[in-house]
Design goal:
Layout (H helix, E strand, L loop, with lengths): L2 H24 L7 H17 L23 E3 L9 E2 L2 H15 L5 E8 L2 E8 L2 E7 L5 E3 L2 H4 L16 E9 L2 H13 L8 H9 L4 H6 L3 E11 L6 H10 L9 E4 L1 H14 L7 E8 L2 H7 L9 E5 L3 E14 L5 E12 L2 E7 L3 H7 L6 E6 L6 E5 L13 H4 L11 E8 L2 E8 L5 H11 L12 H9 L14 H5 L14 H14 L4 H7 L7 H9 L4 H5 L2 H18 L12 H23 L11 H12 L1 H13 L17 E5 L7 H10 L3 E3 L8 E4 L5 H9 L2 E3 L1 H8 L2
Parallel strand pairs: 2-11, 19-20, 19-21, 21-22
Antiparallel strand pairs: 1-6, 3-9, 3-10, 4-5, 4-7, 7-8, 10-11, 12-13, 12-15, 13-14, 15-16, 17-18
Helix pairs in contact: 1-2, 13-14, 17-18, 20-21, 20-22, 22-23
Amino acid sequence: MSPVEGSKRIVHLRSQVESHDERYYRRAAPEISDFEYDVLKAELADLEQRYPQFARPDSPTQRVGDDRIQGFREVDHRQKMLSLDNTYNEAELRAFHARLGRLLDTGDLRYTVEPKIDGLAVSLTYEQGELTRAVTRGRGDRGDDITVNVLTISSLPRRLRGPAPRVVEIRGEIYLAQAEFERINAERAAAGEELYANPRNVAAGTIKLLDPAEVARRKLAIVLYGLGYCEPEVASSQTELHGLLEAWGLPVVEQFRTVQGIDAAWAAIGELDAVRRTFAYGTDGAVVKLDAFAEQRIAGATDKSPRWAIAYKYKPDTARTRLRAITIQVGKTGILSPVAELEPVFLSLSTISRATLHNEEEIRRKDIRIGDLVEIERAGEVIPAVLRSFPEERPAGVEPFDLVKAVGGHCPVCRGRIARVVVAGEGGEGVAWKCQNYDCAAQRTGRLVFFCGRRALAIDGVGDIVAAKLVELNLVRDPPDLYDLSLETFATLNLGTADEPRIFGEKNAAKIVAAREVARTLPLERWLYAMSVPEVGETTARELGRRHRNLAELADSALLRAVLQRAELEREKERESPNSKKNPAQDEAERERRKVRRGEIDQELDALLGGPLAGVPSEVGPSVAASVLEFFASEPGRRLLAKLSALGIDPQGTVMAAGLFTGKTFVLTGTLPTLKREEAEQKILAAGGKVSGSVSKKTTYVLAGSDAGSKLEKARSLGVAIIDEAEFLRLTGT
């Protein structure tokens, strides 16, 4: 791989990893397994090491995944809360031991081995033995204050038993037991709501709900295992800490082992694997830690992970079963996705009868055919996937799968035309089949579910089943049609059949009506994201929302036209190169003409970059610009704009003092007197600035409040400008 190819792959991988981080940490809705995610991140780390000129301090390989969301007050951890490096093989585990042995000048090291719990990391603060605060990991140095929700966990004592330190941060994991997960899903099925995928996602989503009463109904649980800040010190090892946690009456991990040497640690990992499925909480690995705190301090940590601990990830659970059929689903964008219909098989505490096959190319690559014996995997408790087939056990006469033939050359839902299209994937671009009918019922249903999702307009209650019924009855064509429906229409909606009715009910209907009214007030970026505009994800929607006053301005955006103009000028500049090998000049006169034109192009580009495109980020590129303009010029786009206008819905952009902070980077530290951190960040972003989690020479301002920590000292050492809230408000004119 050349440096240029390496650079492109690094950019692509960073985008993929950041997207998956967003889905996992903030949305609690991962799309891929932990193993698939770890493979992507490992490849990115390897390329950054191979091409250090392209490494960046803000790369996802160098920082903790950020789980902060709007709606919660942010607070600092007294001691940073890091994440663990992980491995899937014994050799890397032994290499971890060898590194510590060299560092500590001994191979005779004592370790603890305990379950790696698949939940949401949390830090509890007890002062004088009383629980005073619960905070998510956030970005490591500060997280969301979720105290009011954590207090609903019945197994967590509000006061420690016996003698306790003045202040102690205790780290652990919030989880949802399998039995409670199944109860919640049964209730959602009865209400016609979309079922949750796995207990981890429910636990992570529940703890970030703004209604503590709803959190209490979900019956979360917690387990504690780690130490943060502690004054005075009360333990000298992990083993001693484990005993203290039990003595204090806190719920602790099962199968805790203290062992001498890496051979014993490896044996303990195997013992844990044999019993972990009997635990109340899900586990996906074993955590190996140096036992002695003194040795931990010598080993130290990176900005992301401690060097004295590692997580050994178990191989995902797999099972063999027979592939009965391959059905085709149609998503909100019209992509046709094959799904494996399986002989039911028990795997990871569930009976599995369906699994993803990703796409037709994947089926061909793995040579998967209907009737095959296949191996399936449920890695990280997400949607099961078919790993491989066993051709040697294949029934005679089984033909290769042909998607077009299987659907008769038409969309299986609307019978509309399908076409082969290029789509972005984990490994780069691929191809897929897509229904060309925007009004296909499956696409309409998918768009409606997405429109009402928590990260879009948060209209709770409109899941897959309800959305499908609204579309089936032609009550909703485009998502905003939801506003035309009365409370009575929702309340009397029959989600079942005439023989076995399942009436939605007035209570559920009232939730939708109330939520849709709140959604009216949401900003342009949320509405733009909710409208499923091709090429527009959350980050892009936010950038566009910061640069346009409303939808009408965005639909005919001068900025987006300038982006396209820049792309065309750059293409022309390449064509007009006097020394082009692809398009060589015919003679000296032609070469001179090109030199003149190149100079003119440079002037035009400078005018664009210094004017309408000043501060426009890479997320708003030509493909995004073309897609947005084409969408709003299309019949469906014009229909959406007209509908919103008729409803009196005019979402506003977060534009303020245009360009005020363009090109400026802020770092926030400490607690501000009146502004919440997210409010300050929003003001910075809305004025074209950027917010970073670390101080560097490129930082423009450090906005410091009370109890500011190491970032303030680093800013002083680098000569970075430090401002307080009063100065910040003066700069913003508020």
